């Protein structure tokens, strides 16, 4: 009810009672304020803490009058009509001149901030923001709409608050009538029961029917490439039992491993590669022993010792990489890959 209009001074009980009674009486002339785009969508519902271009909140304005002249009640403020700024909390809205809306004149909308060039004045001719609304329309395509209770009723809009209350215990409610009024206008659009098939966005918003167990198994088999059909014994002479689908995959893997162990899998080229790798590892081990012996020399300088330690670390890392590679090959062989 009071807000910041008291100038920071504590009101007496008599003054507060008079202001409260006047506020309850003014609630009958409540002005419903919203932020509209060119298509008529109420993108934002103005509430008590909504900011005006003058920098003051909506509750600091004359929110209840029949003429819908919502002027600012703060002292020394030149704001004659509330103009909504789409910011919340500590957010800021900047102009194309890269300056805040707070540095622009309330009447002319020109920037008043001093500049290092252009004779010390910003060349901004009017506040234009690149703010993008959720409705995909720019800031300039919106306007602040003021409506009375009768006008909203004729338009078929809600006028009462939750539980059909009149909002008598809260001043400057503006366009807020329900909890959903706190959402953006796009989020408050109801989804029709039979949306157009070509509207993909609404199609994805509709809940999908739950799949049956057979349909889920069919999708799983199609995704992972499993064969759900029965494997014939005549087609695979090595199979001694019939395997059904992906359930007995472990049994089939064991059979492949047994077949692989019975057939020699290493060729002469593989043996040559193994011998070459073993000879390289032997050379690495020899270099490691030589470096360790050199580090034990008593007359070794600090720079030489640092270089030897660095070489020793590199040679040991080769051994570790070789061991990891051998372990990966062993696991692949056991898995039948």
Notable characteristics:
337 residues; mainly alpha; 7 helices; 34% helix; elongated
Describe this structure in words.
The protein starts with 12 loop residues before the first helix and ends with a helix. The strands form 2 sheets. A 3-stranded antiparallel sheet has the order 2-1-5. A two-stranded antiparallel sheet has the order 3-4. It contains 7 helices and 5 strands. The protein has 337 residues and is mainly alpha-helical.
In short:
With 337 residues, this protein is mostly helical. It is 34% helix and 5% strand. The strands form two sheets. The protein has a three-stranded antiparallel sheet with strand order 2-1-5. It has a two-stranded antiparallel ribbon with strand order 3-4.
Number of strands: 5
Helix content: 25-40%
The gyration radius over C-alpha positions equals 39 Å
The biggest beta sheet is recorded as:
3 strands, antiparallel
Shape field = elongated
The strand line-up of the biggest sheet is: 2-1-5
Mean pLDDT, nearest integer? 76
The rounded distance between the terminal residues' Cα atoms is 76 Å
Percent in strands: 5-15%
Helix tally? 7
Unreliable segments (pLDDT under 50, ≥5 consecutive)? Answer: 200-205, 226-245
Order of helices and strands: HEEEEEHHHHHH
Helix and strand content put the structural class at mainly alpha
């Amino acid at each position: 009810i009071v807000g910041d209009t008291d100038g920071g001074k504590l009101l007496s009980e008599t003054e507060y009672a008079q202001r409260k009674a006047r506020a309850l009486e003014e609630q009958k002339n409540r002005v419903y304020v919203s932020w509209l785009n060119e298509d008529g969508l109420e993108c934002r519902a103005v509430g008590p803490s909504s900011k005006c271009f003058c920098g003051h909140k909506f509750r600091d304005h004359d929110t209840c009058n029949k003429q819908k002249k919502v002027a600012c009640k703060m002292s020394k403020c030149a704001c004659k009509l509330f103009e909504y700024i789409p910011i919340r909390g500590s957010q800021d809205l900047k102009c194309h001149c890269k300056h805040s809306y707070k540095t622009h004149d309330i009447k002319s909308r020109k920037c008043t901030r001093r500049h290092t060039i252009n004779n010390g004045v910003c060349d901004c001719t009017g506040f234009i923001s690149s703010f993008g609304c959720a409705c995909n329309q720019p800031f300039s395509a919106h306007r602040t709409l003021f409506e009375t209770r009768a006008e909203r009723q004729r338009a078929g809009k809600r006028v009462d608050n939750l539980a059909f209350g009149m909002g008598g215990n809260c001043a400057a409610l503006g366009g807020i009538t329900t909890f959903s009024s706190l959402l953006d206008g796009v989020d408050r659009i109801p989804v029709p029961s039979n949306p157009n098939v070509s509207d993909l966005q609404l199609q994805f918003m509709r809940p999908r029917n739950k799949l049956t167990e057979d349909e889920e198994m069919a999708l799983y088999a199609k995704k992972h490439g499993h064969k759900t059909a029965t494997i014939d014994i005549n087609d695979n002479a090595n199979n001694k039992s019939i395997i059904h689908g992906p359930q007995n995959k472990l049994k089939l893997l064991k059979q492949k491993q047994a077949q692989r162990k019975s057939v020699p899998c290493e060729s002469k080229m593989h043996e040559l590669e193994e011998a070459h790798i073993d000879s390289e590892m032997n050379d690495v081990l020899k270099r490691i022993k030589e470096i360790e012996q050199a580090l034990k020399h008593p007359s070794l300088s600090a720079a030489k010792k640092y270089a030897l330690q660095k070489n020793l670390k590199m040679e040991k890392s080769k051994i570790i990489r070789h061991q990891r590679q051998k372990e990966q090959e062993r696991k692949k062989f056991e898995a039948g890959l």
